[in-house]
Design brief:
Shape of chain B: elongated
Oligomer: heterodimer
Helix content of chain B: over 70%
Order of helices and strands of chain B: HHHHHHHHH
Strand content of chain A: under 5%
Radius of gyration of chain B: 20 Å
Number of domains of chain A: 2
Number of strands of chain A: 0
Distance between the termini of chain A: 16 Å
Order of helices and strands of chain A: HHHHHHHHHH
Radius of gyration of chain A: 20 Å
Largest sheet of chain A: none
Structural class of chain A: mainly alpha
Number of helices of chain A: 10
Number of strands of chain B: 0
Strand content of chain B: under 5%
Structural class of chain B: mainly alpha
Largest sheet of chain B: none
Shape of chain A: globular
Amino acid sequence: MRKTHEDRSKPARSVNWRTIFFDRVMLVMTGVMAICGSACWWLRGSEAFFDSFHSDLQTLLDILPKIALALVTAALVQALVPREFIVRWLGEKSGLKGVSIATGVGVITPGGPMMSFPIVSAMSNAGTGRAALIAYLTSWETLGFQRILSWEFPLMGVEYALIRAIASIPLPFIAAWMSSLLPPELPRDPVPGSTMAPGRGGD
Amino acid sequence: MAALFVLGALAFSLAILALRRSPALLVDALHSSMRRFIELAPRMIVGLLLAGFVGKLIPSELVAGLIGPETGLWGVLIASIVGGFVPSGPILAFPIVVVLLASGAGLPQVVAFITAWSLLAFHRLIIYELPIMGWTFCWQRIVASLPLPPIAGGITMGLMKIYYG
């Protein structure tokens, strides 16, 4: 359990607006966004700028309800699955077993990033180790069955798609092993929402 | 629409399960997910805007032109780098794949390209991963993923030798 920040242990009941708008990630992203937006206006014209704006709005309307539902799902899974169970099977000490399980879950996770990232976040809060988290994402990104079925089979042909999938099977394991060479898990950045007390109410 | 329905059904059945265990559990979970949503939304909106602008600044056709019909390990390395910089989702990335295959790029290069794009997809990084997981996790995962595209391309080369002789 990583309680690096005071407020993580408290079941905060109110939204902390300051950490939403004035943290490092938000400020850097807003700055880069402003620069890219200006460059877009300057280099590609105001039409491209508003065109981008318009398609962003459409994407937003599409993903917001999905991410809301996925967050509810992730929070419920986190509340229902006992923390000890997650730590035992996917925790820092779970080794190859944890990485294999995470890889398998990654393959079968349906839906886009609005589904997989709430899962990663919930898994992380529930005690999953870094190696297993990285294996999960690598597996979902390179071996996710839904993308293979909906994009690669029709566009690359079954043969090429299968060769690519077979060539990608070792990747989650290599990534997990690579991550074990990195410095031991550092305290996370204060990501908003990680104030969600792990396993709260589950016991 | 189908995705929304599946997610809704999943959330609903889990909610019933939680309710049967204890109503407080359900209320807590709903409350924390609502707070998380409010906290994530502004970051995701900024990420979305950023990804949109970058997509306008770097058109996809430009990316396909960079790889061309190269072959061999060198092509795999170039494809690995280029793939990591494609700033878009599958709707734009897979048409590049089709163009690559049609223009005679080998499968190992295409595999390296897809792998690099899947692992580093810039738009997904800034819309989802960074807001949800934070810097530290992001850079560590990226560092752990850097060797993967050339490895996948190399394995594909080997597989093609075995498969096609």
